[in-house]
Queue: 2 jobs
Job 1
Amino acid sequence: MQRDKNLIPLSHQHQHALALCVRIDRAQPFSEIQLPTWQEEVWQSFEHEIKVHFSAEESVLFPAAGQFRELKPLIDDLLAEHLSLRRSFSEAEGRRMSSKNLVAFARELSAHIRKEERQLFESMQKRMTPEQLALLGCQLEEALKQATPVCRLTRTASAEWDTAGRKTTPKTKP
Ligand SMILES: [Fe+2]
Ligand SMILES: [Fe+2]
């Protein structure tokens, strides 16, 4: 099923997180020297995007899905996964992850994302009316706003590099 446009902002963020998971999986085995760098990247992903993504899902998406009783067990699973993943992000922040933990984390995060995309989003699209989906889209946009300035800044900067072939805006940081 094609992704409904109101869920696309969440799907885009899923792609970013999946790309990180794939890179972690391909980069193993890790040396002791590499581990802190990977953990820094995991933590930065959380701080810049995933933290707000999780709270938008918890405050807007899951309650909207919860109006369908049959989706409640799935939402409970997803909430428990958020808890476990937050623990891993916190381990990454404290640089406490072993190589094994890092790989297990990447697999857990990608399984979580696939469950949301293949089970939750599909089920919601089948059950919700276009009006309900449009309202959900507005609420998600509002909830995701906190993450937007960083993303927009990054996208704008890359777009200007890509299209002009040179930097066209004042550089804020070296
Ligand atoms: Fe999630
Ligand atoms: Fe998600």
Job 2
Amino acid sequence: MLEAHVAQTCQYDYVKIYDGGNENANLVGTFCGSIVPASFLSTSNSLTVKFITDNSVQREGFNVTYTTVDRLCGGTYNATSTSLTAMSPNFPNEYPPFTLCTWVIDAPPQQQVKVVVETFHLHSSQDCSQNYLQLQDLPMHSQGSAHRFCGTETLPVPEFYSHDRTAIVTFKSDEYRINNGVRFTYQATGCSREYNQPFGYLKSPGWPGRHPNNMDCSIVLQAPLNHTISLFFHAFSLEDSIQCSHDFLEVRNGSNMQSPLLGRFCGNIVPSPIFPQNHVVFLRFKSDISRAHDGYEITWTSSSSGCGGTLYGSTGTFASPRYPATYWNNTDCEWVITVPKGRIVTVNFDFISIDDPGDCSSNYLILYSGPDTSYPQAGPYCGMDTNIAPFTATSHQVYVKFHAEYVTLPSGFRLSWTS
Ligand SMILES: [Ca+2]
């Protein structure tokens, strides 16, 4: 029993319980008076009890017992350079109803967490708000992101890199259906990394803040063998220097530092897109001891047809093949812009010049308000129009179709999206 002049505020003598290893964890409750609080189950393997008394009125105090129970799933884990595996309860077999697993994964300071989902399955009929996999940054980081995947997912879950040192993986399911479950690996990583997927985005370390000094990052983009990669710069700012000797981003056509150089960039001019005609691209970002700028934001995609592909990320840019040079005759490209679920895509026409007699029947661009051509369309667009209003979709996906039978004048387009 504790002193309780004002039971609600517990301002004199009280016990506080936090759901974690220190006082930064969620506060479960502040207790005083003589009512025994309800029992409580922590979400992880630690909790913190804090007992405070003032300088007067002594009572008997409190007596708390605790036991440990096996957690079905989730918890707090440290990521190391070795890849470790986590999975839903009893994977790949049945788990109990109303399963909620939250894995909080910490990398060492200055590193990030890489999460690779190996298996993920929920049924498409299951309610997306109650059945999902979510990969997210620690919520306190405003630049962080949350990517939610449900049973209706048409994409494989892309590799996830945390913005800072902590990643949170949540798996939620209201009931088990045959094959439901998730299995993923996690590991700590620095700024050097290899992406084995057909599309993605790249942001400089610390983006959109300044990148650290003395960075040297090697990044490999590895798309499927029969694909060719397109690399689109959305934003760019690095310290300018002669021959970009101070800070630079290099892009090479191949898998390593000896591959042919496609470009070495610094300064504040956003580079043109890069179409290396290869399924693997090597990037190196290097900064010296002083003068850091904001860095870069890049979208990349790939396809087996020479252009098009999935464009993934909350913002980005893409352009016609060979842009700012003119595309070829008989060009057909299809892109699907996909932003995190729950957001809405807006497409901006930054530049459009599509050579056509005027009816947009032979050469055109069409946007659809969903993942394929069955959704309502905007356009067709052609000609040289500098004043097209942005297109806002009704969901988190936009399908973009570009068709050009012939070209006689310099032509091309560049679009960007936000969400
Ligand atoms: Ca510098």
